[in-house]
Amino acid sequence: MLSFSDDEKKIQAYYQAAKALCAYWFEIEFDKISIVNDRIKDMDREIESKTQMQSKIKVYLAGMVAMKLKYNEKFTNATEDINRATQIAKEMVELYAMGGKIASV
Description:
This protein has one domain (6-94): Up-down Bundle (Methane Monooxygenase Hydroxylase, Chain G, domain 1). Helices cover 55% and strands 7% of the residues. It has helices spanning 6-25, 50-71, 79-94; strands at residues 30-33, 38-40. Strands 1-2 form a two-stranded antiparallel ribbon.
């Protein structure tokens, strides 16, 4: 298991704090957000609105935005969150027809 340096701990703490604040703001339920990981509830409803799904995407991108604002830099700790945000966006368009247009076949 890797251990964070003091600088990495600060970066990760700021990153995760941005996600926690964003989750609270957009009323996205989560079990826990710590310096190491998060447990945001992925599908906590049977039916979810486009707005709710967009809010989850915002939560997953909040840490990356915070890094850009604080350090004017991008870091590799955003990989998993980018993948989660991308998956939600893809589902919105491909599974739930929440995109701008429905493609004709």
